[in-house]
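Weekly structure sync - notes
Attendees: PM, LS, DV (DV joined late)
Agenda: review two folding runs queued last week.

Item 1: First target. Sequence and structure tokens pasted below for the record.
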Amino acid sequence: MDIASLVGLLSGAAWLAAVLLILFFVIQASRGKPVAKSGLIILIVALVAVALSTISAGLVFIEPDQRGVVISAVSPKGYRDQALEPGLHWIIPFAENVVRYPISRQTYTMSIAPSEGQVSGDDSITARTSDGQEIYVDASVIFAIDPNQVVRVHILWKDRYAEELVRAQSRGVIRDVVSQYRVEEVVTSKRFEMAEALRQTMEKKLNDNGLVLVDFILRNITFSPEYAASVEQKQIAEQTAQQAKFVVEQKRQEAEQARQTAQGSADASVIRAKGEAEARVIEAQAEAQSLELIARALQSNPNLLTYQYITKLSPTVQTMMLPGNNPFILQLPNMIGQSSTTP
């Protein structure tokens, strides 16, 4: 409890004591038992009560989050030019009084939700975009009274600044700024740009009236039911198109994979055929070289062929019997001893 409040309580107690004393003295006098010097006692108590009331009327304590505007009956302007700072102050009793204003941050919310804003029910701002679409905007304004312009706020608005300044200006500024954007821009590419434009405009409006804008919050944007339905249909169509595009891309990849597989099989077949052909060429070359060597050997030794024929026969064969009317295919050399021919 501050000193000014304490003095006020003491003043009230003194006046109560004076009234009780008067009642007591009257009762005693009615019983024939008057109190000596009762009038003097009442006068002293009354003087103390008047003094305390005068001091209480002159003492003013300003909280740290407040400023006080002094309304003065002795000033030509009717007020003091400077607001009272935090602390204990003395004003002219009964000729001046103080109107306190908070300088702490305050929030004014306008929302479609019935219980969120300062106004009960739907208090969202209805605005139209540049392409004629109707939208509903929820916003919050965080502001404070400029401590150096408290007197000006009192003169211009008194305690009506929240409703008649912040609320009214916010709704007008939102409608003006929204009308400069298309509905698609409001919710996508230019939403932050729009919010910044709203903040700058509101800041200037409030500064011109002695308030400081701390923040302007664009809480929510709601569309009309018709536009919301069209947006939903558009999103469904876009999702369908994306799905179709995905299917086409998948088929293309599958076709490319099949083509690459076929190309790989074809390349493998070509490589295999080429290898087989090269193998046959090498085999033929080897066979030709072998025949050439055999031919050269036969030219130098004609009996070599007969020898090879004989070596291929079974080792147990000693005699060959042929029909008498058939000539020999080969002239066999004498083997063991002198061979004879049986007709």
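Item 2: Second target, run right after the first with the same settings.
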Amino acid sequence: MALSFFKKGKDKEPPKAAPAPAAPAAESPTQALESPNNPAQGGGIVVEEAGGDQSLLDQAALLYASQQFDDTEKILLSTLEKDDGLAWHMLFDFYRVMDKSEAFEKLAVNFALRFETSPPMWAATKISQSATPVKVLNLPAQLDMIAAGRLRDDLAHVGKTAPLRVDFSRTSDIDEAGAKLVATVLANSRHLGQHLEVSGVVKFLELLKRKLNAQPATEAFWLMQLALLQLMGRQKEFEDLAVDYAVRFELSPPSWDNAVAAREVEAASDQMAEEAYRLEGVLGGNQADTWNKLNKYAAQHTQVILDLSSVPRIEYASVGQFMNLLMQLLGQGKTIVLRGQNALIQQLFLSMGIGQLATLSPAPRI
């Protein structure tokens, strides 16, 4: 079956079946662009040149997938003046993944000046070659001393390297004792250098602001909000609130430190959290175990939802395997949703016609 490598033909029917997965030849993106026919081993996919100039953004996505990071950055920087915003968001995600906070902040300033709107927020997502599962702690509706103690215990047992996601999206109320303990727990975790993710935190900050308006003299709610702003790397908001805290309580506020911010991710709905299959880390090399587990998940679902929010990059040499896997699932009568992918992976999917195989639901531009 032939798939257009770089043109998304809307009139094409999805493939009905596919042979066993086969990776494309390990050539460079430049060689792939110059080759009019590039059969995947085993006859699974035939890559055809769609004709016309390859878009610079497609080139950037392919170079990124091939680990040519310097060239990726150069191309994206060269397109900022011509693009309507996509290149900016690809570059924001590139800086997040590469942990280039200073370059990100500089880009954010230029973005705000050009588009006259708030820029995306910093959330570091360093490349990881491992696929360590993320333990999710779903905080309850009432965040009190008991829930805060559970958070403290989980953080104490997870260690420095294993990732832990704290999901605030279900919390609708918090008492003073819970706020005070959570603020202390989060501060200690940051000082220990633990790897944290947070979700639902924007909604939770709004809850804290309402608490502050209703009970302005309750110091615990101030400290809780300061701890969250520090955790998320929002320095300006932290410093503004710290000044207000010092004026109200006539006390020195907590000091800002430059510890790595927690990664902020979208909170999934209960259905998505239960049904989606979560992929982790860079997809590359020998992924046989990953594909086997995914197939077991797919066997139990008519709709296959793959969560790529924790995948910083898909290696170029593994894209063919991934496409063949999707084609196999389509041949089994499955429908496929790919969600949460960053802007660079989304552009790779579009350039390679993966939008013909699955519904694409990329990460929001935050």
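Discussion on item 2: Residues 1-125+281-366 form a domain with the Transcription Regulator spoIIAA fold (CATH 3.30.750.24).
Action: LS to circulate a short write-up before next sync.
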